[in-house]
Every structure is written in structure tokens, then in C-alpha cells.
Amino acid sequence: EPEVTQTPSHQVTQMGQEVILRCVPISNHLYFYWYRQILGQKVEFLVSFYNNEISEKSEIFDDQFSVERPDGSNFTLKIRSTKLEDSAMYFCASSESPSAPLHFGNGTRLTVT
Amino acid sequence: AQSVTQPDIHITVSEGASLELRCNYSYGATPYLFWYVQSPGQGLQLLLKYFSGDTLVQGIKGFEAEFKRSQSSFNLRKPSVHWSDAAEYFCAVVPSWQGGGNKLTFGTGTQLKVEL
Q: Do residue A105 and residue B43 have CB atoms under 8 angstroms apart?
């Protein structure tokens, strides 16, 4: 079964540094998402992306965050200047349509020190 | 306020025993409802979903869930739990009146432990 793949599985960075989290969605999917889960808290929606633009974003997704589909296969989340509170598990997901089930990757655990 | 609640943070059951995980939602109308499972080191996997119609929904891995409008609940059940079912289970909703979409709101999760 096709999978959503995320790299790296674990990223450690210093506060103030930029990080890029990478995702390869399922190849025939057109809708892409990022969610995050701070340790011990709920999984939270960050952003949805379709047709090379953001469809919707949450209040968490401020100017420090950006998403990009740099080529036909990758979907990235960039955090420009990381803060301690950005430490979380970040999940990428994709779907065929807005109402089709989401397929999630295994996540990238981001640790900001 | 709109919310989805999973009252049980941890549940322990013996292998072979039945399982019910609770999920309640608080929305003005019935949202779309989902159950996801997260095994250690894995992503979130969809177990089942309810959009409309038959209130008893069958999913993968032998799970089912029942939608009860009167109780605003969507509880997950399995008749006989296997040790491999140990994982964290998340209930999630999407407001149906917003055209669906995949902006899921998740509950806090229930950690299931299975005793051999």
C-alpha cells in the first residue's frame, strides 16, 4: 500500500535556527496537510495545501511557518526561527480529495534546545 | 464551545476481552466522525469513519463504532482484543456543515494497554 514518508524521523536543532521538515505524499494525492502533536497534548491542525497554495491554516501557523511543494513529489514545512515551544511531533498527511481519508506519515520528532 | 472528548486517558484490558473506547462531541450539528490509531513509532492510521447512514460502522482490524445522536457519542468497540492492539486511539471530527474537508479536530487520545 502506498505510504506517506517523512524525513528525518528525528531532528534536533538550536533555538533560532531554521528547520525544514520533508514529506513525500502519496503520488496521486492532491491535498496535503501538516499537523503537529506537542508531547502530552492533542494532535493539532496546522495547514492544508492544494494547487500550490495554502487552503487553510490555523492560528498556530504564523509567519514563522511556511509550506512549499518544491517539485512534483516533495512537500515541505519550514520553520524560520525555531522556538522551544516548537518542539513537537510533526505529521504530514495527504488525501485524494478534501473529503477522502487522510493518510499520515510516521512523523518527524522536532526537538528545539 | 465545539469540542471532542475522550474521557479515558488510559485503559487496560486483558487479551481476548472486549473493548470500548469512548468519544463524545459537542457541536451544533453532527460532524463527520473518525477513529485513528497510532502505534509506537508509527503515524496515524484510519480505523473507520462515519459520514451518514448506518449508525454502526465497520472498520479495519476488527473494530467497529456506533454513532448515537442522542448521546453525541461515537464509541469504538472490539469484541476480542489482541496484544497487537496496544496503541493510542484518537477520535477526530470534521464539521460536516463546512463541506467536510480534512481539518480534523482530535480528541486527547486513549492509551490502550493489553495484558497477556
A: yes
